[in-house]
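Narrative of activities, Objective 1.

The group set out to show that a structural description can be obtained from nothing but a protein's sequence at a throughput compatible with the screening campaign. Below is one input-output pair from the validation batch, recorded exactly as produced.
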Amino acid sequence: MWDPFLIISQIIAIQTVMYVCLGLWIWIVASFIGSTKSLDYAFHYKQIHVRDFAGQFIIIIFILNALIGAITLWWLVQRTKQCMDFACTAHLIHLLCCWIYNASFPSTFSWWCLNIISLSIMCVCGEFLCMKTELQAIPLSMNSQKTAL
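Output recorded for this entry:
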C-alpha cells in the first residue's frame, strides 16, 4: 500500500539519523585529534581528500556513517526492495545540501568517489540486514492442542 506520509517520514528520519551521527562522529574525532569542529567536514566537498590526516579522517567518518545508514535502513524501512531507493534519496539530499552549502556543484573526484562508495555500502549492507530479517523462519507451534479427526 502506497502511503506518502510514511515514505516522507522515513526519508526525514533517515536523513536526520545520518546527519546527527555524522555530526557526532565529526565531534568525537575532531575532539580526539584536537581539530576544529566545523560543518565544513560534513558539507564542504574540498575537505575530502587523502593528502593529510584531516581528509583521511573525513573519509573514514563517511564510511562509518554509511554503516550507520545501513542499520537505519534496516530499522526504519525494513524492506529489502526499498533500501536502494532510500539510500539513493539520502545521498541525493546530501548532494543538494552540499551544493547549497558551497554555492557550487561538488566537482572533486574524491567527493564523488566517497559518496558513491558510501551509497554502495549503505545500500548493500542495508539490503543484507533487511533480507536476513525477511528470510527468518516463521515459527509454527506444533505443541498446540491436537485435533481429533
